[in-house]
Structure formats: structure tokens, C-alpha cells
Design goal:
alpha+beta; Pnp Oxidase, Chain A; 4 helices; Pyridoxamine 5'-phosphate oxidase N-terminal domain-containing protein; Pyridox_Oxase_N; Split_barrel_FMN-bd; globular; about 25% helix; about 160 residues
């Protein structure tokens, strides 16, 4: 279990973009940049008026897919699929922590992107955390198993 978690964390480090699927009156999917913590929580910034954030406010269950978009069709493919719970982050200290990770990981230099500006509505973006409940890692390089039998982390 710990080895699979380490593979997941290593994969998360090598990518920056994820697809988040939501469901309100109908399904929707959006691509967003992410950062993550040691517990494999994923964090993204997005406007509250976007469809995926409006749907999260109605239904916090989401699905996520992350793949290495540089891999070719015939390469030994690697990626993650998961489902979890998405919630808006509003704690000032947690916002500071996440935005610090965000700026470092994505080389973001905008000084206006701050926890205080989010709290005071100076900027309209909000931080969301996805707490994973189930993660499936597929990697033909790491695991020689038939499709559909890839390792799964239940959290």
C-alpha cells in the first residue's frame, strides 16, 4: 500500500494538469492546473461562476483523470483515475499554504494572487480541495497486470 502511494505521489509531481468531472443537472468536465499535498489531496484554482464550481456547490462528488500527455499511443501508458470529495477552501492559513505551493509548483509570479485577496473578493478565483476516496494508478511500466486489474488505493 505504501509503495503504491509513493508511485502516486511521484506521478503527481511530474504533471500539472488534471481533468475534473462534475455532475449537476448534467455531467461536465474541466481541465485545471493542480498542486497536491503529502496526503494526495489535490488543490486547484477556479472561478466560482464556472460550471464545474457551480456543480461542485450542488454535488461535491467528483472524478479526476491525470495522464502524461507526452506519452505516445504505443508507449507504456501511465496515469491516475480517482474519485473524491471537492470543497472550497476558506481557512486563511490553508489558503496561504496552498497558494505558496501553487506559486512554487507553477512558477506563478502574480503578487495579487494572495489569500487575503481571495478572502476579500479582490480576485474572483477560489481554491478547491479534492480529497481522494479511491485512486487507481495504471502503469504498464510499473505493474504488469491486465487492464482493469490495476492497483487501487481506497482512502
Amino acid at each position: 500500500m505504501e509503495l503504491i502511494k509513493q508511485h502516486v505521489l511521484n506521478f503527481l509531481k511530474t504533471n500539472k494538469l488534471m481533468s475534473v468531472a462534475t455532475f449537476g443537472s448534467y455531467p461536465w468536465i474541466a481541465n485545471v492546473y493542480y498542486v497536491f499535498d503529502d496526503e494526495m489531496n489535490l488543490y486547484f484554482l477556479s472561478g466560482e461562476k464556472t460550471l464545474h464550481c457551480q456543480q461542485i456547490s450542488q454535488n461535491e462528488k467528483v472524478a479526476v483523470a491525470i495522464v502524461d500527455s507526452h506519452q505516445g499511443f504505443h508507449d507504456k501508458q501511465i496515469g491516475l483515475q480517482m474519485w473524491g470529495i471537492a470543497k472550497k477552501v476558506s481557512d486563511l492559513e490553508k489558503l496561504r499554504y496552498v497558494l505558496g505551493m501553487w506559486k512554487q509548483a507553477l512558477n506563478e509570479k502574480d503578487d495579487n494572487l494572495s489569500a487575503e485577496h481571495i478572502i476579500n473578493n479582490v480576485i474572483k478565483s477560489r481554491v478547491y480541495r479534492i480529497s481522494p476516496k479511491r485512486i487507481k494508478i495504471f502503469s504498464k511500466q510499473l505493474f504488469s497486470v491486465p487492464t482493469g486489474e490495476e492497483p487501487v488505493l481506497e482512502l
